[in-house]
Design a protein that fits this description.
Helices cover 70% and strands 0% of the residues. The longest helix is centred in the middle third of the chain and has 35 residues. It is elongated and about 65 Å long. It is built from five helices and no strands. It is a multi-pass membrane protein.
Amino acid sequence: MRAGIALIFVGHINFILGAIVHGTVLRHVANPEKRVSPEYCTANIISVVSGLLSITTGICAILASRNIARAKLHWALLVLSLLNALLSAACFVGLVLSISLTIADGGKNLISGCNATVLPADTRSVIMSNECPFDTTRIYDTTLALWFPSMFLSAVEVALSIRFCVVAFILRGIGPCGETYLREKVYAKYNGVNKSV
């Protein structure tokens, strides 16, 4: 149950970070001319969806811990945790790619939507307001400051989702995780009964 609450909390924070990045940065960067690499929008969308799926998986984990005998909740937890682990891993990889490309490029892709004929060498320098529809002085720092915690939270989501997946395998008796003594141990823990193993 505590891990489910932790996943809900992490999912909320990751969702909020993704929404802030989209609201403060990517809405200015995404333009119809497609001058910006699509990895920024893709990583951000996956981050937001991963946050929502993490919240759903955490809720399912709490419900499964309270209703341990319900097989439908076991299957729901298994499916949701597998999907969330894959999506969170994709989010982590996408954010690593976006951060790497942004740092290697010096953040020039983030200001390529400006109308300036020659972009400055330093992305933190000021561009005339009539040449750029947004403030360029903080876009590089803001993006990286939000992407690094989001990348870390995505890794936490992967770890918690894998844990829930293993628990769902144990509860359903599937594979090497489904040994009888493991299932009895889990049921004994959640039912508060001391059983000899």
